[in-house]
């Protein structure tokens, strides 16, 4: 089995691939205060039910947008692998053509998601990754990554709303009720969910106009499942796109997989 680790600012996703298929996907919270040992213990609890203990994985790969955790988590993941654990970074083969004057502007999560999207969907394509931040990445008609738009995610917006407005309570994200809500909590959730869904629709339309034709619209990320059902555009919801991209990149760089 090959283990993939997607490290975001809020959540860490772990995927296990066997014979080219995702066998399991689990999540835990990101905490920069945890040690390597603590992360290894947390991983063990999550993956043990899926038949994995120390040294049972053939290899692994990590994508991280939290630099101070990258090596800590790579080392923790390596405890469950007999082979090498890669980190997505410059020099690793991705199969993705980045056509930009500043390739470094694309985080490893965007690279992984777009690498998977190029293989899975027709180009041109627009990939929205909805989590702590929301990014829209554009793949042209040749499948080349040409640029992105980036802004704060729903949880940041909700926290800012409570922090800056003294009379508003702290509210967790959740399914909205009526668009025109009768209470403050419901109104905040309505604004966040329907507002972000409308923004996603609007950004996809603008990207479509810029790219021309009928680009494939794809959404992934921890919060995509909450927002996409409330969008009006025809959007492919692909929850594990980044994990799939990680596995794909692992296979391009590692010896032949025997999982």
UniProtKB/TrEMBL annotation:
- Lipoprotein keyword on record: no
Name a single GO cellular component. cytoplasm
Catalytic activity reported: (R)-pantothenate + ATP = (R)-4'-phosphopantothenate + ADP + H(+)
Q: In which pathway does it act?
A: Cofactor biosynthesis; coenzyme A biosynthesis; CoA from (R)-pantothenate: step 1/5
GO molecular function terms attached to this record: ATP binding; metal ion binding; pantothenate kinase activity
- Please cite one Gene Ontology biological process associated with this protein: coenzyme A biosynthetic process
Supply the NCBIfam families for this chain. Answer: baf
Q: What does this protein do?
A: Catalyzes the phosphorylation of pantothenate (Pan), the first step in CoA biosynthesis.
In its UniProt entry, what is this protein called? Type III pantothenate kinase
Q: To which species is this protein native?
A: Zongyangia hominis
The gene for this chain is coaX
